[in-house]
Amino acid sequence: MGILHDDVVIITQAEKEGDPSVITINCPDKTGLGCDLCRIILCFGLSIVRGDVSTDGKWCYIVFWVIGSPETRWGLLKKRLVGTCPSCSSASGISFYRSELQPPKPPDVFLLKFCCYDRRGLLHDVTGVLCELELTIKKVKVSTTPDEKVMDLFFITDTRELLHTNKRKEEVSDYLKAVTGDAMISCEIEMVGPEITACSQGSSFLPSAITEDMFDLEMPAELPSGSLTSRSVSVTMDNTLSPGHTLVQIICKDHKGLLYDIMRTLKDYNIQISYGRFSIKQRRHCEIDLFIVQTDGKKIVDPSKQNALRSRLQLELLRPLRVAIVNRGPDTELLVANPVELSGKGRPLVFYDITLAFKMLNTGVFSAKIGRHLIGDREWEVYRVLIDEGDGLSVPRNKIEEQVWKMLMGWE
């Protein structure tokens, strides 16, 4: 079975503003492909408002209806989507399925050392530049000096794999200069080894009170009033409607990355989707139907496996991220955490959304760190932001917490 390479991904842009654009994907299948595609769509800031997925286990056909913006780089999006589809070998312009022979080499990690005079919103503007240039932030350490200078250390990888070249380094420096102007003091980029990246964050200690509350992996019997969760999540499983598949039905409120959260959970459980349909109704009410099988091609009949998958889906949709404001001595610290995929990938745009929320609140960041922590049986990406209180915190703590949560969930 073969298709023209240009037909692997077809994007039909909306004719009118506000209407969805249509992304059609026709390629060989692999477990977790839906997760990888949804992750890229999330990286580009698009919202999936409807989706259809069908596969025979070897070849898949996927259609996403997405809402973008005038700034959406559709050509680059297509390139990234094609790149994540299973590898193909070409003959006479026809692409054929070729299984992966070995996992890809981990990307090189670079240290971006950026020094600049401080101002409100600076960290978000710098983060926005890195996102625009497809530089993925793996870890970060941001600090402010008494003379109102900031030293930002970003450990980054380059999606384009060009950061080892002087031309690419100059491009990054020029973009940062354009957004900071004369305030920029210096910008240096160098490749670092894995041992530097591993020890860059110092202690991985998190207070036990934080880990117990924020990283509770059990479904709560009742959600406390005012808790930052996506309420009214229903997950049901049925083995009677299909002779060969388990039907998973999900009803919940939409949030940014909803389909990604579902797909990454199924990917971590090695679940294959044979057919699926996703749609958003009125008031951001979502309905998802998924016909799934295990890696052996059979439906899920073991009650314990059903309960485990159901509980994990409910938990991931109730609390796809964890947000809390805590005291750090005399200071105030914001903590945001998201689970890391088993593949090692973190959630896209989290730091971008955090810094955007602070910019909108006109609240400064004194220091920030990103690190990974193994808590329970899961790895988490944890963002720790020490708030610049200056002469006193002008914005109430609960307002900061709520604004960050809404920004991350796409409810702002």
From TrEMBL:
Q: Which GO terms describe its molecular function?
A: amino acid binding
Q: Where is the ACT domain?
A: 111-184, 247-328
Q: Pfam families from the xrefs?
A: ACR10_N, ACT_ACR9_3rd, ACT_ACR9_C
Signal peptide residues are none
Query: What keywords sit in the KW lines?
Result: Repeat
Where on the tree of life does the source sit, at the highest rank? Answer: Eukaryota
Please give the InterPro entries that the UniProt record associates with this protein: ACR1-12, ACR2/9/10_N, ACT-like_dom_sf, ACT_ACR9/10_C, ACT_dom
Q: What does this protein do?
A: Binds amino acids.
Report the PANTHER family cross-referenced here.
ACT DOMAIN-CONTAINING PROTEIN ACR10, ACT DOMAIN-CONTAINING PROTEIN ACR4-RELATED
- Protein name stated in the entry: ACT domain-containing protein ACR
